[in-house]
Description:
Elements: E1 5-21, E2 24-37, E3 42-47, H1 60-78, H2 84-91, H3 98-116, H4 120-123, E4 130-132, E5 134-137, H5 143-156, E6 160-164, H6 171-181, E7 187-190, H7 200-203, E8 214-215, H8 223-230, E9 237-239, H9 246-254, E10 260-263, H10 265-268, H11 271-284, E11 288-290, H12 297-307, E12 339-341, H13 354-360, E13 361-368
Parallel strand pairs: 5-6, 6-7, 7-8, 8-9, 9-10, 10-11
Antiparallel strand pairs: 1-2, 1-13, 2-3, 4-12
Helix pairs in contact: 1-3, 2-3, 5-6
Amino acid sequence: MRLERVVLRRLAMPLVSPFRTSFGVEDTRDVLLVQVEGPEAVGWGECVAMSEPLYTPEYVDGAHAVIRSHLLPRLQQRGDELVADEVATVLSPVKGHQMAKAALETAILDAELRAAGVSMSSRLCGVRDRVGAGVSIGITDTIGELVELVSGYVEAGYLRVKLKVEPGWDVEPVRALREHFGYELPLQVDANASYTLADAAHLSKLDEFDLVMVEQPLRDDDITGHAALARQIRTPICLDESITSVAAALDAIDRGAAAILNVKAGRVGGYLEAKNLHDVCFERGVPVWCGGMLETGVGRAANVALASLPGFSLPGDISASDRYFRRDITEPFTLESGHLAVPQGPGLGITPDLQVIDEVTTLKEEIIWQAT
Length: 372
């Protein structure tokens, strides 16, 4: 793939409603888009880092800076004949910054696939033309508000509900949902690392509610603690923040710290590595699902393609566009019978709306590609 120009865009995307988790509240998504242009095609990638380094060490300002000052120069040194499969290797001397690397790799991969007339789903070896959609519910002010919110999503057809929890907001909200919706509703909770192993007895109270999983209850670096917790509760443990690579996933599985994995391409450095992670888990019979990071249609298209792989046996956080944005920057993803269609066009299979993008752009930086 020969490139001529790279455009880094910062967007301010207002959310339909504030999204609260144990580490903060978002009401506007600060999005970093990477656009790469060549004579054959234009490709797009979305960086999923948050505004502040609270979920992971990465944050949007840092991702923007590292792409401009460190990642792009290394790719330019590779020369004109750059292919997406080489991006991770070329960028490997730069430690960390997985979300920034993923955004750049995705943009190059998208352009490459558009030029070749191949869809992202086909490139990743997807097997489905639609994927099950779940919805992630942030922490609400009252249980009554929570029940009303979940009712709307259940009526809309979402196949699974994930409830954000934290100490003081866990057992009673879950109890209320089970009492209102019964045990037929697939329900899981996500703690975003807000508990410690000392909370094991309290977390075991969730066992009576027949949850699909409890996601990332302990610190991301506490694999030993998760393995110990797994021996003390019946609810399956899913790891999210802890899974930063295939090696990290294998370590967690082998040590009994996780029965299920949340695969986020940005967290592991890109969709090609996410496919490798899927393949390893599929071989071992470990269920995986695709996590979300409040993506626009660009990132959502890539997630839907990833979730079309055979090992993604659980509905992911791949909601319809209107779950988060009143107006998306691509054609909207819509929910049909609890599923989203997998784009079949070349590359990501979506068309970014440049007029809408320009309206929400807060910063635009153009970089002429100079291969060395």
